[in-house]
Structure formats: structure tokens, C-alpha cells
Design a protein that fits this description.
Length: 1252
Amino acid sequence: MCEVRQERWGALVSKLMRVQVTPAAGSEEEAALITTLTGLCMCYPSPRLLQDHQQIQCVVEKCVSHIFEPHGALVRHSAQLLASLLRCPFTPHLSGTTTAQLLAWLGEALRHQGGKEGQIDTVYQLLRALAAILRNTSNPAQKVYLSLAGGRGSLTQTLECNSAWLNKVMAIQCLHLLTYVGPEVVTEARQRGEEIFPAEVVGSIQRIVIVVVQQEPPHPSQCTHRLYLHLMASALSVLYNLVVCAPGLVLGNSIVSACRPFAFYGLPGYSHGDLVDRCPTPPMDFPSTQDSDSNSRNYTNRNRRKRLRRKRAQPSRSTPDCNRGVVGAPLGGLAVGGVGLGLRGAPPATDLANISLKPEWTKGRGLGQTEIQGNKPVSPLPSSSEGEEVQETNRAAEPQVSSETDFSDIEGGGDKETALMARVRQCSLQAINAVIDKVGKQHKFSYWPPLMCQSPSLMTCVLRDPALLVRMAALQVINTFLLDSSKVLTLAVERSSEGKSSYTTLGHQLGVSLRELHRCLALALISEKFPSALVRTLKTIELLVENVNYSKLQPGLLSKLVTHVKYFMRYKETVVRANAFSVMVSVLMIKPQVEELRDLLLRYQTPALTAPPAVLPPPSMEEELPGEEEEEEESDTNLKKEMEKLNLLSEGEEEGSSGGEKTMVSWLVGRCVDSLLALDHEAVRGIYIQVQLQSLKVLSALVSEHLTLILPSLPLIQRVITVCSEAVQEPIQSSPLPLPARHPYHTPAHHRDLQARMIWDGGDGGDASFTSPDPGVVVEHTYTLLGCLLGAVKTDLERKSESSLNLTQAQQLWLWTLQGPLQVLLTQAASGHTGDTTKGTPTQADQTERHQPVSWRQREGTDSTDDAEDSVKQVVAVATVLSHFSPEVFESLGEVWAGRVISTVHWLVTHPEAELRLAGVRAMAIMVGFPGVVANPGSLALLHATVEAACDLLVQRDANVNRDRLLASWALANVSSVFELYKDSWEGSEHFGSREVLSQEMLGRVLEVGLRACLDKDKIRPHGVRCIGNFASFLQPQQVAHPALAPLVTQTVDTLVACASTGSNMKTRWNACHALGNIMSSGRLSIATAPWRGQVFTTLGCLVESFKNYKVRIQACSALCSMTGRQEYGSDYLGVWKALLRGLDNAQNIVDYQEIRHRDELINQICQGICQLCVHLTLADAGTLCELLQVHQDMAGPLMQKAYLSLPPERSGHALQAQHRVKELIGCDALTEAQQQALLILENLTAPATNT
């Protein structure tokens, strides 16, 4: 049979190739040619007939040759054959020339045949062939885009004319394939700044597709519902492709308006006809709730309350309800049982006070992987991640061929139609998300009202859509809104019930919508079963908490979120559990802190027996506590067993350890301890690296932001730090590890019992297959936790009287740190071993390795090829802890511990590993000014080593990342600011000879490195400016005269002047002015004879007069008036007076409204500078200043009086000196008239003000 068909195929191909001219219309040759083409179409399904690739290409070229003219009668048969050949999976890839010729012929034929009546089948065959060739064509030429989709393109004309719906679907499919390009093409075009599509093509496609999307659905007799769904899905995908590939050419408002109705297509309770916006978007009525039933708008307020009560009585979203509302829905989407999601009244099953607080996953087992896969849409959008996935997606985007149409239902039944409607909703949400993402964070909130405030909203999709991927797509749109939105969401406020206004402000709209979003996300969290959707919901909650300013909103939002999120900190899926911990981190890090969060952390605390509570905890709060709700449901034994498996501590142990005192803080600490210190191997199965890291982050957030509340649980946190830090340092002992040194706080009995049970037992669960694959990261985060704890203690001590800790307690905590977690670093520094990271002698380590089981963390680290790199990272994490010392605590440690710490820092600074040197330089930069460090005998050697190490890190610019250079420049600037403190130690040392702390060579090298840093990145320049300014002010006159340093000093001043006068980095300009002030006020350089004096005065004077940044003007004024004598001003004395008086006059002219907060300080600083100039005044200067003072006396008088009243006593010394100097000059004999007038004006300006 195959041989017969092969012979027939060959004969028909030979017959087709013999045709050389176009046959006449109606002739026998034309009929024979039609018979040949029909026969070839009937032979194409056989794979063996298509092995001759050259023959197939010849057939294709023949079909588009001059014989088959685009406007002839044989177009339909030729197009049918082309579609049959190109759609077959065995057809070979055509050459570029043939493809271009084929696209041109199909476009021309479609343009001629599309406008003719009665050519529906011809147009359909042409579109089938065009779709087939576009599927296999990547990145067509520009002329192809213009010929197919331009203003007069063939596909555009096909959609504009009144063609059949099947042809419209095929034309949209062609546009979908035409507008999709690979991700590599998009990336390359963005890098080059080129457009992928011509602007004409983008405008044409956008216009015609939006028209197709917004037109009324056809009658079922004209177009089936499934065909219409395919049309909408493809049209929405085209809009998505346009937004991704040409974001600057699309109209975001039009696309969002067209896509929004289809985000709810097929949902029960929402009529598509009511949602389609035929006109521009109507104004939003935010305070009121819109209903799907248009007749309800005429109801009275009394009837509205009745309808709200009926809404609350409606059943919640469930699979049977959704199926009843979707399967039998007609094409127009009639409204079936249910109503819209309002903003005032609670939607169905969203009244959180009337439903069980138990999450959905605790009511039954989650669906398996096969059920999850069953929720996938029929045809997702083209992916932009991998090339292979792109091809598969493109094939799925177009339905398969069948005997009837290309869009017939293969599977049959209502499930197929439900999946298609879900795909339409998903495509709509993806297009909306693309628009919001491309428009930028400054303009994306213009789409917030129609998508988040009007009913139905995106929250409707999250709560009521039965398709998993649609719910995730809606959450992704909300995530895009919330990402980097803190500046806009901080405007959100909530009006109290008492205050009423005639209009609704933007802040109130945001506040109401944010409260609704909190409520809906809490409901979605407890009603969701799929782990992927739970993860997306938790990420949305995390973004919401990070960007909302809760201090401006009414309390209650955080309590509901935490109540529901904490359930999932014991979820069976690790990724869900990790994201729940991450949400808690965001909650704990809320800034500014709100009282609700503190009350939430102190909740569940049992009151003391001596004083009965005025208000008992509500029963609902007792229900919210995980582990207690299960005891009330005795019949649900399966649920109890599942919860016991999830709890790493059994219920009896947890209740026994509470000791009658339970707070949210202790509960959080307990959950983190469960994740970090497991009891048995069954519990360890669900613990992975993500949960452990997030648990450490939760503890870090607790100790850094809520130290006062965490103090009772501090011994337990110390236990966690001890065990986790020793994980890679020594193997697990078979006997319980000794408890660390106790913190001097009172340790409750339940904490002591819990600590005793937290000890690792090597005999019960030490199997490496059940635990974390990357212990090094856990160790690094453990020392980060320790650093947060010590940093919080340091911050708490700085509050003096308000501190919750005293110096003795902080000292004991640091002694525990040095004797425990940091002991390994101190031991390495003392022994001088650079590669050993284990405690004990090598002999003991070898004996332990032979006779005891190796820790799972050690086993993984030993097998890793990056063991050395991981070891360095861990030592860096340990060394970073030393940067949290405070001066008082360091001095209280005593000479022995202070010497060991300084020796350790010196070992780090001189280490051959760059990362360790950087950690040592950072620690020394913080401790360099401590009195205990300065007085230590080894501080001078450490100072020299630090300067050398910082210079080495800055010199190797190409070999170091910006972070290293930034840290090294900052450290060098800090060290250079305290050189004066080390002069006494240097003079008393045995090396004292040159009477200088640093040698000439070292000073020259530091200046060279600092000058290079001033030309580095914007973040490094301010530190480079500080560095060269500090070193230049530290130089002695004989050093400045040295031939090697003199050019560097001149270059330093020139660089500082350039940095102060140019550039957009205000921090650099401020530091440059500060550095110039240090140089001129040091008194070590001869300013009077310096060649650069006039340039410095001119630059600073221009800044004081009219610079836009007031902080820079303040610092420039301070530097300008920092001279120690009149001779240093020289001839620039009058110019300095002019700059100050003009700057005082211009201080009222504020260009940027943000500078108004610095205006008073600028006025005070200029007035103080005028007093400093008066101190150096002479009679000759008074005569010269007479005219200038007469011009500005009316302006300067009130401001000087105001500044005198506002200046604190410590800053009024110059004013008193100025008064004394002016009175002294007035008492001189033989004053000229100009001198006398000037002195009288200055007397009035500097006279003490009287507070009337």
C-alpha cells in the first residue's frame, strides 16, 4: 500500500513540475492542475512520502511561482497544499530565500483574496499556511512585518473587513506568532537601544487587536464559545507580546482597559457584558461598593443593608459552585449565583470573625502532583526563558488540526471549556502585569484604582477563581504593584469614624484598599491548598508588610496577618515554611515601629496572680495559638497526627515548658529553635537550609529591633548560637555538650528545661542524609545573628538612662562571646595558623575523627571542593562580630582580653587572604578611636598595619570589587581622623625618633591612594576626600616643605577644590568643604603664603552665596570662617564678608522645598561666621566695609537678632568675642566717618538680643 502511495506521490509531483505556464480559466489544463494539487493534499499524511527534502522544497517553490498568481483562481488549492505540507511535523526546514518568497506570496494573496466575497475558504487556507510558516520563522525581516501587520497589511485588512469568525481567529493566531520573538532577541535589542517592531506595525496591531477584544461576543450560531475563547486568548497574548517587545510604543491605558474585563471572564457572579468598557473608564466611586446587578444601584440605603446581610450569607468559592457557574455559561457570560467583591461589606466567606481560623491544609491532605498538573491551562503564553520551551509553547498556542476545524474540542466535555476560560483570564492578567511592570514605579499606581478599588478587583481573582494559575497570575500583578512602592504607599491614611469629609482623598483611597488587601490575603492564605499558590501569597504579604507605613493606618492589620501566617511556620512543605518565616522577618523589621506590633509580641502572656487582669484574653486569641485548636476537635484524629508530625516539640512538652508564661516572642523563638536544634531524625526530615536561614533571620530581627522583649529568651538564643557555631568546628559529642556561660539575667525554669532538651544527641539522630546540604551558610548567618545581638546591645547602651541593660551585663555578654563563639578565632590568631578552623590540637582532632562519628556538617564540608573558600567565608563572618564593640565595653574587658582582641585584629589585618584583611581593616576602623585601643602598647603596630592593608586594597583597583574598595576607603578615612590620639603613644615608644606617627613614604603613599579614590565611583569619592583632607591637616610644616610631599599637597588642595565646586554627589562636595576647613583650621600650613589660598576662598564663597544644597552651604561657611588670624585672610577678607552677607540675603530664596528644613541652620551658621569675622576686624577693614554694611544692615539686623536667640550657649562664644572686639575698636581715637559708621552698624548687629 505504501509503495502504491509512493508511486502516486512521485507521479503527481512530476506532473506538477511539468507545468510551466498558468492555465486558462475553465480549461482542461486548469482542471487537471486542480486534480493534481488535490491528490498531493491527500497524500501528505504519510511520513515516508516526505523523506525527500529537496523534492518538498521544490513543491513549495512551485506553489508560490508565477504559475499560481496571488489574484488567480488556483490560490485556494495552492494554499491548501502549502498548509498541508508546512503543518506536517516531518516537513524539513525551508531555506531563507524560500521562506521569504513564501511569506511574500501569502501576504499578497491574502491581500487580494481577503476583500472578495465568497472567498472564506480561500482566506482560511491562506491563513493556515501563513500560521504554519510563521511558527518556524524566527525574527522575520522588517518588510515582512510591514506587509503583514502594517497599516495596510494583509492581516490587518483581514481583521478589519467583515470576515468569518474562524478567519479572524486564524488571523489573530498569525499575529500571535508574528509578534513573538525569542528572549535573546529582546535582550540584544535592549542593549543596542533598537526597536524590534516598526512603530507603524505596533500601532496597527495594537489598534486592531483592541478593537477585536472590545467588540461584542458573536451569536453562538456564528461562532462557537470555544472558538471565541481561542480568539480572546490569542488576542490577549498579542497585546502581551507588544508590551514586552515594544514597551515605549504601546498605550498602557488602552491595553489595561481592554484586558480588565477578561480577567474575570467566566467567574460566577460577574457578567462579561457589564464589565466590558465600551467607553473611556468611568470615574471611580471608591467609598461605595459596585454590584454586578445593574438594577441594584436604584436601591435605597435601607435595602443596601439587607443586601449586605444576604452577601454574608452567600456560600464561599468551591469547586462545585464554580463548575455550575462556568460549564453551562452561555457566550455572553450571564451572572450566576454570587455577587461582586465589595470594599465595605465582607464578600462571601471573608468575614474572618465568623469562620474557623484553621488553614485549609489542616482540614485534609493536599492534592498530589498529578492533581496539580491537572490545573495547567490548555495553552500558556509563550515563555521567554528557554528556546526549547518557546517552540513547545508556540505549538500549543495553536490548536491541533482535525477533520472539522483547527479549534475543535479534542477532549470534549465542559472541562475543556473551563480550562479555556481560565487561559483567557490568565492571558489577560499577564498582559496587565506586563503593562504595570514596564510603565515604571513612578506611574504604575495610576492603574491601582481600576484594578484594586473597583469591583470586581484583582482580589476577586485571588479569592474566587477556581484555576490555580489564574490565582497566581493575579497575585503576581499585586506583587508588581507592591514592589518598590513604599514612597506611594506611605501616603495611605485611614480616616477615623468621627471625621467625615465631602470628598475622598488619595491617601484615604489607598488606606481603604490596603485594609481590604490585608483582609483578602489573609483569607486566601487560609483557604489555599496548593504549595505554589501559598508561596506566592506569602511573598505578596511580605511585600505588603515591607512597603506599608503602618503608623498612619488604624491598628488591627498586623494582628490578622500574623495570626494566619504563623500556622504556616509548621507547614509540611519546606518552601512554604521558609516563606512564612520570611514574612515574620518583614513584620519584625517594620519601621517606624508601631504599638500594635509590641502588643502582638507580648500577647498570650498570663497575668500575675497578685493582680487579676482587668480584661481577660479573648477566646479567639486562644484559638489562634498553634497546637491548641487540635485538642478541641477530638474526632479529627488524622489531623492531630499530622500536626504532631509537623511539630518538632510535642504538645505535652510545649505546654510543660511554658511554665505558665507564654508570649508571642517566646513562641517565635521556640519555632526557630525547632528548626535549628532538632530532636529526632523524623523531625529533621523536613528541615532544609531555607528554613534554617530564615529562622536565623527571624532571631536576628528579634534581637536587633526588639531587644527589650527578647531578654527573657536570651539564654536560649545563646544556646542556638553556641550549637550552630560549633557545627563545623568540632564533631558532635556522644555526651551532652557543656552549657555555655550563663548570662547574668534571671533564667526562667521553662527555658532551662527547654535548653536541656535542645542538646544534640549523636545517638538519636545524626544521619547526614536528613540534614542541611550547606552548613557553611548556616554558620555565617549564625555569626550574623550574634553580630545583630551585640549591635543591639551597643545601641541600647548609647541610650544611657533609657537603656534596658547596664555595662556589667554587656560586659558579661561579650565575655561569653569571646570565650565561646569567638574562641576559634582567638585561638587561630594566638597560634598563627592561617588555615586551621578547628579547636584543639591536630592529634586530638585525628583521634576524634577515628573514634567518633563525624558531624554531618563536617562530612559535607570535607567532600566539597570549595572547602577552603567556605572556611574563609566563615572566618570572615566570625571576624565581623568584632566590629560591634563599644568604647565602654571594650575598656571594661581589662588589659588581658583587650590585648587578645587587638592581637586578633592585627592577625586579620596582616593575613595573606584579602577577605580576612578586609574584615580586620573594618574592625580596626571602628575601634581605632577607643581609649582602650589607643592606650594599648600594640596599637601603634596595628595602626601601621591597618594603613598599609587599606592602601593595598585600594591600589588593586582592577582585582577588587567595588565593595572592597568602598570598605577600604571608609576605613582609611576613619583611621586618618584619629592620628592625633596616637601621638602621645608614639612619643613614648622605643621607636620614637622622627617625632611623627607615619613616615614620609607612608604619608606620600596614603595621599596617592586617596587621590585615586577621589576619582573612583561616586560612593567611594566621599571617603577619599575625607582621607586626603585628614592627612593634609595632619602634616607638619617641615613635611609640607619636603620635595616628595609638596606636589602631593598642592594636588590634594586642587582636588578638594574641584570636588567642592563640581559634581552631582552632594556628599562628596560636603566632605570636600569639611576637609578644606580642617586644613585651614589646623594651623600647621602657611595659609597666608599659600598659592592656592585665593582659589579656596573664591570656591567656598561662591558656595555660600547661592548654592542649591543648604547643607553644603553650611559646611562651606564653616570652612570659610575657620581661620585663626586676620593675616591668613589677606586681601580676601572683604570678599569673604561679601559672600556671607549675600548668602544671608539669599538664604530666604529657597529653590527646592526640601531645603526648608535646613534654612534656619544656614542662617545661624552665617550669623556665627559674621561674628567670627568681627573678631579679626581692624580699623582699616572697618572703613572698607562701611558701604557694604550700609547696603545689608536692614536685612542682616533681624536675622542676626533671631540667630542670637536661637543659638545654644556653647555656640555663642564668637558672638561675645565679636561684641568685645567692636567695643574695643569704637573706643579708639581719631576714627574716620566711614570707620565710625561701620563700627556702629556692627555694634547693632552683634548686640545681644532681648526676648520681647
